[in-house]
Design brief:
Helix content is about 45%, strand content about 20%. It has about 190 residues and is an alpha/beta fold. The protein has one domain: 2-Layer Sandwich (Nucleotidyltransferase, domain 5), CATH 3.30.420.
Length: about 190
């Protein structure tokens, strides 16, 4: 049976040492409310795995040694994130992860929540900004890159690969797509 509660949309972005949480550590996590991006969360994590993909590591500018020294232990980081989600999610609503390529971010977040807390307060669903854009505009999948979506809305965005900056940019894109969806629905 579907959950009748309205959702609280939370834009989430992560940076990782590689392509999957089974082998690679999540290095940083940023989140913000889609409709109030100043309500935000950011943490850099101590690595819990040693395997690295050189291309992934070059993107975020992190090193495992640097994060071992300055990062937050994963259990503490995920507890703080769960607490933040609880604080920003109004009663009688459910949090919903929104991401640009949401499956990637969701799999790391879900894995870390289950690994360290035994539960995932974001549940088992996520809303993908790329898929939402394709559905609203009819754009083919190949036209759903960040550059193309931002260009469609005349937004200038450059991925910084800072998880919080990128989560805020995702929220901006999502709001633009939602506005177009609402305009199309009103005109129908």
């Amino acid at each position: 049976m579907p959950d009748p509660r309205p959702v609280t949309l939370i834009s989430v972005d992560i940076e990782a040492a590689g392509p999957s949480p089974s082998d690679y550590a999540m290095l940083s996590l940023g989140a913000c409310l889609v409709d109030d991006p100043e309500q935000a969360f950011y943490v850099e994590l101590q690595p819990d795995r040693e395997k690295v993909d050189d291309a992934a590591m070059s993107i975020g500018g992190f090193t495992l040694d640097g994060l071992r020294a300055s990062g937050t232990p994963p259990r503490e980081a995920m507890t703080a994130f769960a607490d933040w989600i609880g604080a920003v999610t109004p009663p009688h609503t459910q949090p919903l992860l929104v991401g640009f390529n949401a499956p990637f971010d969701w799999m790391f977040v879900a894995d870390y929540f289950h690994r360290y807390l035994g539960r995932n307060p974001l549940g088992h669903a996520a809303l993908d900004v790329k898929a939402f854009f394709a559905g609203v505009t009819g754009a083919p999948w190949g036209e759903t890159s960040l550059h193309r979506v931002a260009e469609h809305y005349r937004l200038k965005m450059v991925l910084t690969h800072n998880a919080l900056d990128d989560a805020r940019d995702q929220a901006t894109l999502f709001r633009a797509i939602r506005a177009e969806q609402q305009e199309r629905s009103a005109g129908a």
